[in-house]
Amino acid sequence: MSGPGLALVVALAEEWGTDPSPWGKRVWAELHGKESG
Fold this sequence. Notes:
Layout: H1 4-12, E1 15-21, E2 24-30
Antiparallel strand pairs: 1-2
């Protein structure tokens, strides 16, 4: 996998991955914001 968008996902996501689908693939990511306080 490659591409500028994926590099951004890798840099920001706690976890990410891909799932195959009938029309291609789905990329998912878990992003966690800063805790306020």
